[in-house]
Amino acid sequence: MKKIVLFVFLYFACINILNANDSVFVSIVKNVSIKDTQETIQNAELLKEDLSKQNFTQLVKSWKKVEALYFAGDMDEDYIDTPRYIDVFHNLKEDLNEQMQRVIDSKDEVNIALFKNSFKTINALEYVLLNDEVISKREKELAIVILNSIISKLEDINEVYENYVNNPNKSKKWENSLLMNTLIASTYRLKEWRIAEVAGISSKYKNNPDNKRAEYNLSKNSLEAIKAILDAHKKVMSKQNFKNFYSVSNSFEITKQISDIQIYFKNIDNEIVKIKNDDLTKANELYKQVINLHNAYYFSLLEQLSITSKIVDADGD
Amino acid sequence: MDSLNVFEYFINPNKRLYFGYILSSIFIAFLFYYFTKIKTKVIFSKKLWFHKSAILDYKYFFVGYFINILFLIPFLISAKTIAFSVNKFLYFQFDFFETNFFSYNQIIFLYTLALFIASDFTRYWLHRFLHTIPFLWEFHKIHHSAKVLNPATFYRVHFVENILFGLRYSFTIGIVTGIFIYFFGAMIDIYMVAGVNILLFIFSLLGSNLRHSHVPLSYGKYLEKWFISPKQHQVHHSKKYFNKNYGGYLAIWDRIFGTLKLSSEIKTMKFGLKKEQMKEYSSLKDLIFTPFKNLINNYTRK
After folding, report:
1. Which residues of B touch A307 (CB under 8 A)?
2. Which of B17, B78, B104, B149 is most worth mutating to test chain A (most A CB atoms within 10 A of its CB)?
3. In chain A, fewer beta carbons within 10 Å around the N or the C end?
């Protein structure tokens, strides 16, 4: 018995030591990316069983976290486009709702009717489930096929992450750079696509606010999506029980930047509380606060974490 | 240059006199003499290594080290500042940019190459300006006042010239890095060997110390149109051809801008300045103060 206790103790001690030696990136993938991806798969399965609005909201929330910190495309180039097979927000020129209505109305077999990749995305699913009060038999069948497609893509993502944490074969420089680039791009999309374009702040829609441009206007989940994205960022930048940029801020000499970022998170949260009924048309202040966060990533952290080039002192000739 | 250690110049691969580059140059010189059967009398001559000019080079190398510490460090730091200023400028002019077009390895390759080419290009022009702008030529004369050439002649450079090269470094590296950060964010890196850009490491290893030597190593007619050979640089040090071969590693700039001279076209080389000028550069004090003295004289004469 003593041997078993000792073995178990040593096993967990070893696991702890191994985890402590993980890089920030591997720790994030283990503790955030994989967990969020698996949670999204579970939520998709739950939605398959019960096609309720709440379950759809849960799926949106978990998926947005996965999307906000999507690394699989850089770990394995074969998966660079995978998020676009799940979500086409801001990546589609046609009116998806109009197309999905035609899919619902058509008499074609479900798999044939969903012939386009964009028809099997979470955006298509939103229309199928929430275009009216009742979910018809046809809509149920469509939703199941869409969800199966989403689950299959998420399983691919999960596999890429699992493979990477089992064999982290890239340099720490690459890992930290990817983490930074992902956060920067994510805040840019957050402020421009999800806030500025809805609130009529962007140059394209100047003084023309319209909630129809919001990410999940039909299900009124746009603010939930924004919150989920910010939650994912907090997993990387705020205090957690695993290694992240917050826990290594001293050794990376980014304490000032990390501390500023906590203030921006707080300010953003304060602005989010003010938004009611998913109405993002008056989100000007929220936009300003997200700019601060984006700039903190883009200018301060990037500056601190990026490289300086060296050159032979081949000067004078 | 983190601490005052002059020997760092011999153990740091970022320095031209790094022992690895010296050894490789000796090895290349050995092969050169072995295969060409050219007499080695000059290269082993005491007169060469203990020539007044060579001794002045050695002394100036040590003095110059301390001068450089004082004048170069601030400029080396500012390359980063320029990089982020350029990035900021591009960001505010053209907004955020994101691309997945290039793989990580392709970006590293492009960045490594861009740094090398841009640096060689600006070195060509600064070097040319040092010859063609009378004010700058007064400072660059120090380097050309060497009557005999040895690897330490590389450091026979006035501190004003060092400042200019420091600025050149900051702007070149800063601008290239700023552009790359704008396009690729944090995901930029350099292929390096021993902490040095791999291309510079290779070129330094391939006999860069023979440029300032009496080993007339030519790359042949074809290669000399692409790369500056040690002999081509020696041609540049020859009195008649100060206005030729300004290039660092690449000969393409000399070709494009009409200053290329192939080593095969030159029969004899005489190093140093005109006889009457040479006496102005015979001591450490001269090397530091003569340019200022000449500039004041030129100004007051007007």
Report:
1. 188-190
2. B104
3. N
Residue A314's pLDDT band, with cuts at 50, 70 and 90, is very low
From the candidates B1, B77, B90, B187, which should be mutated to test the interface with A, based on the most A CB atoms within 10 A? B187
The structure's pTM equals: 0.87
Residue A308 near residue B79, CB atoms below 8 Å: yes
Sign of the C-alpha dihedral computed for residues A10, A11, A12 and A17 taken in this order: positive
CA distance B108 to chain A (A): 11
B124-143: pLDDT as tens digits? 999 999 999 999 999 999 99
Give pLDDT tens digits for B168-215.
Answer: 988 999 999 999 999 999 888 889 898 888 998 999 999 899 999 999
What is the CB neighbour count within 10 angstroms for residue B191? Answer: 14
